[in-house]
Amino acid sequence: MYAARRERLRERCAAGGSETALVTRPANVRYLAGAAPAGAVLLLGVAEDLLLCGSPPSGEAGEGRPDESLLVRVLPRAGGDAAVAAADVAAAQGAESVAVEEHHLTVARHRAILSVAPQLRLGDLGGAVEQLRVIKDEEEISSLRIGAEIVDQALGELLESILVGRTERHLALELERRLVDHGADGPAFPTAVGTGPNSGRRGHRPTDRRVEEGDFLSVCLGATYRGYRCEIGRTFVIGTSPADWQIELYDLVFAAQRAGREALTPGAAFRDVDRAARQVLDSAGYAEALPPLTGHGVGLEIDEDPQLAPAAMGKLDACVPVTVEPGVHLPGRGGVRIDDTLVVRPEADGGPELLTITTKELLAL
Amino acid sequence: MYAARRERLRERCAAGGSETALVTRPANVRYLAGAAPAGAVLLLGVAEDLLLCGSPPSGEAGEGRPDESLLVRVLPRAGGDAAVAAADVAAAQGAESVAVEEHHLTVARHRAILSVAPQLRLGDLGGAVEQLRVIKDEEEISSLRIGAEIVDQALGELLESILVGRTERHLALELERRLVDHGADGPAFPTAVGTGPNSGRRGHRPTDRRVEEGDFLSVCLGATYRGYRCEIGRTFVIGTSPADWQIELYDLVFAAQRAGREALTPGAAFRDVDRAARQVLDSAGYAEALPPLTGHGVGLEIDEDPQLAPAAMGKLDACVPVTVEPGVHLPGRGGVRIDDTLVVRPEADGGPELLTITTKELLAL
């Protein structure tokens, strides 16, 4: 599998005029090599493919294991730059050109590579590996599915506990502990828990504010499982009876999120999916309160291509996992976000596959 | 204070032939601007200093607040590159040259800057801000001191609880929860808890192994407080009576760590501090088992200059906080690490100031 991915990349490189490629971005290294120990780089060489590591791979579950068809070499000198060492290897193999990830490599490392291998012509690999990563195979989707089961479990358990009086920070830490209890490598991103005026804010960092009766409580968390990251977001109301404005706002965001989910079909333009969700909120007068995007791809990173945003170019393919996560935040009052991870599937296969199955009814807790 | 730091940087830039500087590395932005919202960059301009942010500063404690003497501007277009926008501003102000952080800026961003402002000459700021950051003022040291009190408290509470039968992961999560309980912004780095054969490994990722009678238990954790990161490492033995080899190994690492601490004086060469700790272990026959460094600077990042390592060049100054953290890990058996954060102080002021005061006696828990 990893060898096949590297073969596809090699074909793209050859088409771009580079015989070898040097992959430095950690998620790209992991995608092509099975593991990305800290500081490791992957050389798709003339003679053979080589994973160069700053320190020996730990072999721990969270890190992955290097593909057995790869040569793995550990740098002799601690603190050395594996990218520079890899360029040296490429030059020794007689390579004339190597494509590097200019969107990841720093100017200083680029210069260091040129200085050890001045005869090498350095090209740009651009986002070639990121593009390969967009469409997932069933094994990748299976890892996302298990991660989504873990977040559903962690969230379900939280909802059974007493919430009033606990701080956002405590709830976030408890959710992260539960993720790990249920087998996640770790959280996919810092857990966001917002109460009252903080509810509904995208990427909210938990504070010491305590949950109060009548609050909206919004939670966004994700699990990493075998390196793959998914996310879920839900908003609840605390107390027995939500206020009218809370029910209205919730119903509106729910309708927007459903519209976004229903727009997920192979061939749909990214911007059309975004528009489907966005126009529900727009036409209710919330144009100002809207985030720059209403969803994005997930995988080895939590924020991958595609972006579901007004100016995004391109169309969805089958087997692309994305989030759909519209929300409205009203300064001083709070707000609602609803966020699912789904996999785009053709109509014939039943349409989009919902990975995060926690209910989206408005629960009063 | 922030204005004075920027003034010092401006002088260095001028000496290097650049009239303006563009700071992109987040810890450097925070050091000079008081805050570093995601994607923010700082332009030390011809006319005025400008913090350019991708999204509005949140004003939350963990993020810091932008210095009031700075202009703060939020990019109009979400997803835009603040560094490119800053170069545009510099060019509009009539700047001819701008020094950038080539060790942080990617090749692609460097190129994007050149394409919006082709008339600008781009120089290299190098590690100028990192160098300014090495010697801390008393306010910075005060933040580290409070962080160290927090890690001491979190660790002290853990030691009072039952440990046998609990997993490394659980202990690590509990420590992180306690850090936040006591007021930390968050952990300074992923907490390492190692038991039995995993004990004493630097940067060990906690596993599901449970604490057993007779184990070594080594713990390394840190707190972030007002952005500043400190660390502590301790090793304990589980059960009533340590084995002879455990006492011997502990005493040896303790002696090495003490030698390192005692070598911390203004004017001491980095490599001499390293050698002081290292030779104790070397002469006992553990040369192979030693890590590449025995300590490092801490501050806004957990791993800053200086490096206390055999090949490090330079000398300690007063008011530089460093760790001293020798350890020995014996494959299959486990090991010992002892790690303190201290501030270098002159003899006349009482010598090195120990921030992490948890006892280093061998406790049997």
Distance between the termini of chain A: 46 Å
CATH superfamily of the largest domain in chain A: Creatinase/methionine aminopeptidase superfamily
Q: Largest interface: which pair?
A: A-B, 29 and 28 residues
Report the total helices of chain A. 9
The helix/strand class of chain A is alpha+beta
Radius of gyration of chain A: 23 Å
Oligomer: homodimer
Q: Structurally, how many domains make up the residues of chain A? A: 2
Tell me the CATH topology of the largest domain in chain A.
Creatine Amidinohydrolase
For the biggest sheet of chain A, the summary is: 6 strands, mixed
Tertiary shape of chain A: elongated
Could you explain the architecture of this structure?
The structure is a homodimer of 365-residue chains. Chain A is of the alpha+beta class and 365 residues long. The first copy, chain A, folds into two domains: 2-133, 3-Layer(aba) Sandwich (Creatine Amidinohydrolase, Chain A, domain 1), CATH 3.40.350; 135-354, Creatine Amidinohydrolase, CATH 3.90.230. The first copy, chain A, has nine helices and 19 strands. In chain A, helix 3 (82-92) packs parallel to helix 4 (107-116), helix 6 (138-159) packs across helix 7 (168-181) and helix 8 (244-262) runs antiparallel to helix 9. The model of chain A has no long low-confidence stretch (mean pLDDT 93). At the A-B interface, helix 4 and helix 7 of A face helix 4 and helix 7 of B.
